[in-house]
Amino acid sequence: MQPEQSPGPAFAPRLSPEGADGPEGRDLPPHPDLSPLTFLIGRWQGAGVVGYPTIDSRRFGQEITFSHNGKPFLAYSSRTWLLEEDGTLGRPLATETGFWRPQADSRVELLLAHPTGITEIYLGEVTGTRVELSTDVVARTSSAKEVTAGHRLYGLVGTDLAYAFDLAAVGHPLQPHLSAQLKRVG
Predict the structure, then answer these.
(1) What pTM does this model have?
(2) Does residue 147 contact residue 169 with C-beta atoms inside 8 Å?
């Protein structure tokens, strides 16, 4: 007869009202290393234009969130939707998530993951309220489309966050892919 094993202490995580990750910076000051990037912190929404030789030019809506938890990185997420002719949100488009990691001498690293099987590492520089980044590494799964390079430029235009993204993919050289202008919300 085997002795009955105790299941051990019960574990039930306590979620704060803000969610499993805690306050995400609501009550914590940003880590001092984030000072060059604090202008990004918050939730941004707006619209832009997407196009590429392989897709027709279309308008899209977007929400980007930059948050922190007191550690020396920003958590980043972006969601986009096709905009219908009347300006209402249509079908979902791209999603990406990642981390912005400030480095010495106004440098920054950006790690991104896409549910389409692509991951990217960007290296760049922060100048005031402008960030310019270029891919250092692009990796993809066997089922992902071919992406070979990217270049991103983010910056404040007045109080709006504007950005442009150039892409090299599916046999095409680096060229404009999308741009948007977003307003801080919430």
Answers:
(1) 0.85
(2) yes
